Hints:
The protein is mainly α. It has helices at residues 2-34, 38-44, 49-58, 62-77, 80-95, 104-118, 121-136, 140-165, 168-185, 201-208, 212-241, 246-274, 276-294, 300-305, 308-327, 334-363, 366-389, 397-405. Keywords: Cell membrane, Membrane, Transmembrane, Transmembrane helix, Transport.
Amino acid sequence: MSEALTSQASDERGAQRIHLNAFYLFAYYGFGSFFPLITQYYDSIRLTGTQIGVISAVTPVISIVTQPLWGMICDRFHIRKQVLMLTLAAAGAIGLLFPAVSTFAWVFLLYIAMSVFQSAVVPVSDSLALGYAKRHNVQFGDIRMWGAVGFALAAFLTGLAVEQWGPAAIFYSYCGAYLIACLFLRRIPEHTDAAPFTVSVFKGLTQLIRLPRFVLFLAATFFIFGTINAHNIWFSLYYQHIGGTVAGVGLAFLLFAGSEAPFMKIAGYFVRRWGLELTILLSSTVSALRWLWYSTAPDTTWVIALFFIQGLSVGCYLATAAQFVRENTPASLQVTALAIYASIGNGLGSMTCNLLGGWIKDTFSILETYLFFGLASVAGLIPLLIIRFGPWKHASAEQQEQFASGQLSR
Length: 410
């Protein structure tokens, strides 16, 4: 009887893992359908470069407000799965409205509405996956890499669909992927891994900013993750500037994003060998060097041939950054901390990098935009160096709670 129960439990865990992997595959398929190719839609309705910059720079700031709010709702009511289901469905439905509009004002309003819901997808998904990884003693990167697979496939396949049927294919692919992700999400059980939420919104934020390692990591995320997100918007124009084709953009993103999956897998080995902090520092350094190299206008052949740089930089960073947040914040505030981390990178960092990057492009050229990305990433290395070699070492979970509540001082 015990062997049968053990076998049944093992089968259930296996099914849950498959559903979680499939969820990440389709959730990020939606991202891959949208962001690498959205400039093709902007071009089709004749938006100016300034208008594209405004949309890309201003709307991510919505996440600065909405991501922490979604996280706090999840912490307070323990309804992460329900929140994720709602936000996926709503974002996908709004996406279907884009082909019906053709003016800057309507695109801007729809993008804001979509961002309100889309901003919850990454932090809440990562919270569920990190909880699963902790319960079953698996690496978060082994789960998150399926998102990279989905993103890579979407960039390539949706690119082919755009060539065949036009930019509207972007939004049909985006919505369809989110709906399929919801179907797999329904089969994933939700477990409450965090302690009950017992503090107010402002008190929770006050507790988190008392943690120097967390605040330093937010500063690094602002620069490093901000430039990574901005690159997804501007690469299409950059690649064509250095002699590439629109078709080549889809191939590049297929290889770039595809390289993330194996490096997310390898990231676990790096963490075990060198530690979490050095792994993050290594990936961030590679990212900075990549943007500086791009600013020299290398041949497109070399950009494609060295596609794996994306995996070594972005893949390793994504696989380890959320883990760093979880290990350096109190258990009772981890969903909120993940939401703030994502809002800084996806929101404030992306807004700043897109806004300045667009202005630099109009004033100089897209090459100088990538030079700016490189210098900004170098600035992001400074807080990471302080985390690794500075006075604030990693604290235990109990000490984190005491530091956050003010019972201990740094």
